[in-house]
User: What shape does this take?
Amino acid sequence: MTRTVADAVAALEAAYPPALAQDWDAVGLTVGDPSEPVRRVLVAVDPLPAVIDEAIATGADLLVTHHPLLLRGVHAVATTAPKGSAIHRLIRAGIALYCAHTNADAANPGVSDALADALGITVEAPLAPQDDAPADGTGVGIGRIGRLPERETLAAFTRRVADALPPTAWGVRAGGDPQRSVARVAVSGGAGDSMLHLARAAGVDVYVTADLRHHPATDHLAEPGAPALVDVAHWASEHPWCAQAAGVLGALDDAPEITVSTIRTDAWSLGHASPATSAAGAVIS
Assistant: This one.
């Protein structure tokens, strides 16, 4: 039996219930006919032109992404605009587009569980519980709190993160004493400086997230006893979810052929580390 777009959507929405999405979000089927067959699926973080190229080249019938194509108001879908061009290309190629965004962030397991698993962290509870989630690792909510197999220094943990995630020009950077001992960890895939206060309240040793800004980060680190910070590229922090979503679809009977895109869609394409030999910082090669 050939699966349909509707079958794939049902499986994804069972794993990542749309009701968990934030009010401002735009999740679900963006392009496509639910009755159309799905033989090949591509899973990616972003529905950017290079990913659409890959979907077309691989003969995908469905593109599943974490980030929405139409998150903000769009008043035209002419091919002269990037989003309009993307929609036309998908329709012409017969490719449906489905996104699971903040619902995948909050689901259990979800984006932050995939990140924690990649880093070797055993999850204990949500960082920002949603819907009265129990504090036993079974609840839903944004971010996760967990524990490493054994203590290690912040420097070693930063290397662990760099080794576990796909490489980017942004790389991985940390704030705090390199020799600080860390065991309890908070993680949040995507931009997470709005939850710095939750990481402090949780009493973790280090917080891993993306897109940390200068002022929130420096204010946080100035707080006595505050967790160290590890900042990674947004795309890299969410890429582990792609394999998780592929597994959801792969569990279907008569599952379609599923590919996880490895195209780097991080916004930054070039980076140079500044040599640092003073107390101002250290470059870990």
